[in-house]
Amino acid sequence: MIEYRYAEGRIDRLPGLAEELVQLKVDVIAASPTGAAMAARNASRTIPVVGMSLTEPVELGLVASLARPGGNVTGVTYGVDTDIFGKQLGLLREAVPKVRRVAVLSNPSPAQPLIIKNVTAAGRSLGLQLQLLQAREPGEFDGAFAAMAKERAGGLLVVGDSMFFIHRARLAELAVMHRLPSVSTQTQWVEAGGLMSYAASLPDIYRRAASYVDKILKGAQPGDLPVEQPTKFELVINLKTAQALRLTIPQSLLVRADEIIQ
Length: 262
Prior knowledge:
By secondary structure, the protein is of the alpha/beta class.
């Protein structure tokens, strides 16, 4: 039997939902994203927690180390280190060679300070000026894009977030409306109308996380199961959006794409 709980993009609901699962005495909790895994760990230090798409689990204190987690949390990371953000920003600059100022839109979360640190380092290494913006709810989207326009941002990086995922179509619409070529850490961003994404494959991560659940149900201890890092990344490009932006994607970029949406 599987018990589902969904916070609908609201971080404040995670502790209560995690406590509900603990009260049900479930055998293992599979949690995504990082905030959900942290809520589950805070609710119980004995029920095994398998994190799916974890962000910086060592730095956030979820595990002692990737090789030896040591507690009741293990799982698979998502990949939001400096190298990944550098790759995303580099792809954006390849698509828009003249871009110099890039807006970065994120939603405050426990992992946000580390994410911003990594994306800032990536931007600095590429010589880009970053405009850091936050949106905690859909009502703040218009203000964030107005700020991008005021500062003449030439591109947009959307940091993956569950709330952004739910409202990805609106965000993609705003990006096109403000003529902002965009790249995201979520593949579904492109399917919703965003320009590009470069991200770890979530289906692959979830399959690997399922193997952790299987091992734990068969008696393995989460603290003995090394946290794995993503190995499969996908570049997706939306040519319809490129056309709407009057942007020609270089052939050198198109041939590297794993998927092209016409």
